[in-house]
Protein backbone atom coordinates (compact mmCIF):
# COMPACT_ATOMS: atom_id res chain seq x y z
CA UNK A 1 0.00 0.00 0.00
CA UNK A 2 1.17 3.54 -0.68
CA UNK A 3 2.27 5.52 2.37
CA UNK A 4 2.36 9.25 3.03
CA UNK A 5 3.55 11.44 5.89
CA UNK A 6 0.92 13.68 7.49
CA UNK A 7 1.65 16.32 10.14
CA UNK A 8 -0.97 18.15 12.15
CA UNK A 9 1.00 21.40 12.53
CA UNK A 10 1.20 23.40 15.80
CA UNK A 11 -1.85 25.50 14.86
CA UNK A 12 -3.92 22.36 14.19
CA UNK A 13 -2.92 20.77 17.50
CA UNK A 14 -3.57 24.05 19.39
CA UNK A 15 -7.04 24.34 17.83
CA UNK A 16 -7.91 20.79 18.90
CA UNK A 17 -8.24 19.53 15.33
CA UNK A 18 -6.13 16.37 15.63
CA UNK A 19 -9.08 14.03 16.15
CA UNK A 20 -11.13 15.67 13.39
CA UNK A 21 -8.28 15.30 10.91
CA UNK A 22 -7.57 11.67 11.80
CA UNK A 23 -11.31 10.89 11.62
CA UNK A 24 -11.53 12.31 8.09
CA UNK A 25 -8.76 10.01 6.85
CA UNK A 26 -10.20 6.98 8.63
CA UNK A 27 -13.72 7.60 7.31
CA UNK A 28 -12.28 7.90 3.82
CA UNK A 29 -10.88 4.37 4.18
CA UNK A 30 -7.23 5.25 4.72
CA UNK A 31 -5.24 3.60 7.53
CA UNK A 32 -3.23 5.31 10.27
CA UNK A 33 -0.14 3.09 10.20
CA UNK A 34 1.98 5.04 12.73
CA UNK A 35 1.26 7.95 15.05
CA UNK A 36 3.13 10.18 17.53
CA UNK A 37 3.06 13.61 19.15
CA UNK A 38 6.39 15.45 19.28
CA UNK A 39 8.09 18.82 19.31
CA UNK A 40 10.31 19.13 16.25
CA UNK A 41 13.94 20.26 16.65
CA UNK A 42 15.14 23.06 14.36
CA UNK A 43 17.57 20.61 12.74
CA UNK A 44 14.81 18.16 11.83
CA UNK A 45 12.55 20.99 10.66
CA UNK A 46 15.32 22.26 8.37
CA UNK A 47 15.83 18.73 7.02
CA UNK A 48 12.12 18.27 6.42
CA UNK A 49 11.77 21.58 4.57
CA UNK A 50 15.22 21.54 2.88
CA UNK A 51 13.64 22.12 -0.57
CA UNK A 52 12.53 25.58 0.66
CA UNK A 53 15.90 26.60 2.17
CA UNK A 54 16.41 29.53 -0.22
CA UNK A 55 12.83 30.85 0.00
CA UNK A 56 12.20 34.12 1.87
CA UNK A 57 9.69 32.43 4.20
CA UNK A 58 12.05 29.61 5.28
CA UNK A 59 12.94 31.15 8.66
CA UNK A 60 9.30 31.79 9.50
CA UNK A 61 8.37 28.29 8.39
CA UNK A 62 10.96 26.69 10.68
CA UNK A 63 9.97 29.02 13.56
CA UNK A 64 6.35 28.04 13.12
CA UNK A 65 6.72 24.26 12.76
CA UNK A 66 8.96 24.15 15.87
CA UNK A 67 6.73 26.49 17.92
CA UNK A 68 4.65 23.80 19.62
CA UNK A 69 3.73 20.14 19.58
CA UNK A 70 2.81 18.50 16.30
CA UNK A 71 1.20 15.15 15.56
CA UNK A 72 3.01 13.05 12.96
CA UNK A 73 1.44 10.06 11.27
CA UNK A 74 2.00 7.64 8.46
CA UNK A 75 -1.22 7.26 6.48
CA UNK A 76 -1.48 4.35 4.09
CA UNK A 77 -3.88 3.21 1.42
CA UNK A 78 -4.43 3.14 -2.31
CA UNK A 79 -3.09 6.39 -3.81
CA UNK A 80 -2.63 7.72 -0.26
CA UNK A 81 -0.31 10.58 -1.34
CA UNK A 82 -2.75 12.09 -3.81
CA UNK A 83 -5.89 11.37 -1.81
CA UNK A 84 -4.44 13.07 1.28
CA UNK A 85 -3.27 16.11 -0.75
CA UNK A 86 -6.77 16.47 -2.23
CA UNK A 87 -8.38 16.21 1.21
CA UNK A 88 -5.92 18.86 2.56
CA UNK A 89 -6.64 21.47 -0.11
CA UNK A 90 -4.07 23.77 -1.74
CA UNK A 91 -1.16 25.36 0.17
CA UNK A 92 -2.86 28.76 0.35
CA UNK A 93 -6.12 28.31 2.29
CA UNK A 94 -7.59 31.26 0.38
CA UNK A 95 -7.77 28.89 -2.62
CA UNK A 96 -9.00 25.87 -0.63
CA UNK A 97 -12.57 24.68 -1.12
CA UNK A 98 -14.88 24.04 1.83
CA UNK A 99 -14.74 20.35 2.67
CA UNK A 100 -10.95 20.33 2.60
CA UNK A 101 -8.97 20.59 5.84
CA UNK A 102 -7.43 23.92 4.86
CA UNK A 103 -10.71 25.16 3.37
CA UNK A 104 -12.56 24.41 6.58
CA UNK A 105 -10.00 25.38 9.24
CA UNK A 106 -7.29 27.75 7.90
CA UNK A 107 -6.99 31.31 6.62
CA UNK A 108 -3.27 32.01 6.22
CA UNK A 109 -0.63 30.34 4.06
CA UNK A 110 1.92 30.44 6.89
CA UNK A 111 -0.41 28.64 9.31
CA UNK A 112 -2.25 26.09 7.22
CA UNK A 113 -2.93 23.32 9.77
CA UNK A 114 -1.61 20.26 7.94
CA UNK A 115 1.30 18.82 5.97
CA UNK A 116 1.08 15.94 3.51
CA UNK A 117 3.89 14.57 1.34
CA UNK A 118 3.70 15.71 -2.30
CA UNK A 119 4.91 12.47 -3.97
CA UNK A 120 5.75 8.87 -3.05
CA UNK A 121 9.47 9.79 -3.17
CA UNK A 122 8.92 12.72 -0.79
CA UNK A 123 6.87 10.45 1.45
CA UNK A 124 9.69 7.90 1.72
CA UNK A 125 12.21 10.65 2.57
CA UNK A 126 9.92 12.38 5.08
CA UNK A 127 8.67 9.25 6.87
CA UNK A 128 12.31 8.43 7.76
CA UNK A 129 12.67 11.81 9.51
CA UNK A 130 9.85 11.00 11.93
CA UNK A 131 9.61 7.21 12.26
CA UNK A 132 11.91 4.22 12.71
CA UNK A 133 10.83 1.25 10.58
CA UNK A 134 9.63 -0.67 13.68
CA UNK A 135 7.29 2.20 14.61
CA UNK A 136 5.20 1.68 11.49
CA UNK A 137 2.76 -0.93 12.69
CA UNK A 138 0.27 -1.33 9.83
P1 LIG B 1 2.52 22.33 0.99
O1 LIG B 1 2.55 22.41 2.49
O2 LIG B 1 1.11 22.52 0.45
O3 LIG B 1 3.20 21.12 0.43
P2 LIG B 1 4.86 23.86 0.12
O4 LIG B 1 5.63 22.59 0.18
O5 LIG B 1 4.93 24.68 -1.12
O6 LIG B 1 3.30 23.61 0.44
O7 LIG B 1 5.32 24.80 1.33
C1 LIG B 1 5.55 24.26 2.60
C2 LIG B 1 4.98 25.18 3.64
O8 LIG B 1 5.68 26.43 3.59
C3 LIG B 1 3.51 25.56 3.42
O9 LIG B 1 2.62 24.59 3.96
C4 LIG B 1 3.43 26.86 4.14
C5 LIG B 1 4.78 27.50 3.88
N1 LIG B 1 4.72 28.39 2.72
C6 LIG B 1 4.69 28.05 1.42
N2 LIG B 1 4.64 29.12 0.61
C7 LIG B 1 4.64 30.19 1.46
C8 LIG B 1 4.59 31.61 1.26
N3 LIG B 1 4.55 32.14 0.03
N4 LIG B 1 4.59 32.39 2.37
C9 LIG B 1 4.65 31.87 3.61
N5 LIG B 1 4.70 30.55 3.87
C10 LIG B 1 4.69 29.72 2.81
MG1 LIG C 1 5.18 20.61 0.34
Task: Kindly describe this structure.
With 138 residues, this protein is α+β, with helices and mostly antiparallel strands. It has a single domain, classed as 2-Layer Sandwich (Alpha-Beta Plaits). Helix content is 41%, strand content 19%. The chain is built from seven helices and four strands. The chain has a four-stranded antiparallel sheet. The longest helix has 11 residues, at 18-28. It is globular and about 35 Å long. Residues 52, 57, 61, 91, 109-110, 112, 115, 118 line the site of 2'-deoxyadenosine-5'-diphosphate (DAT).
Straight-line distance between termini: 10 Å
Residue fraction in strands: 15-25%
| CATH top-level class | Alpha Beta
Strand order, largest beta sheet:
2-3-1-4
Largest sheet: 4 strands, antiparallel
Number of strands: 4
Enumerate how many helices there are, as a single number. 7
Mean pLDDT: 98
Query: CATH-wise, what's the superfamily?
Result: Nucleoside diphosphate kinase-like domain
Q: Classify the secondary structure makeup into a structural class.
A: alpha+beta
Keywords:
four-stranded antiparallel sheet, 41% helix, 138 residues, Alpha-Beta Plaits, 19% strand, binds magnesium ion, binds 2'-deoxyadenosine-5'-diphosphate, 7 helices, alpha+beta, globular
Give the helix/strand layout:
Blueprint: E1 2-8, H1 10-14, H2 18-28, E2 31-38, H3 42-48, H4 58-65, E3 70-77, H5 80-88, H6 101-105, E4 114-116, H7 120-130
Antiparallel strand pairs: 1-3, 1-4, 2-3
Bound molecules: 2'-deoxyadenosine-5'-diphosphate and magnesium ion.
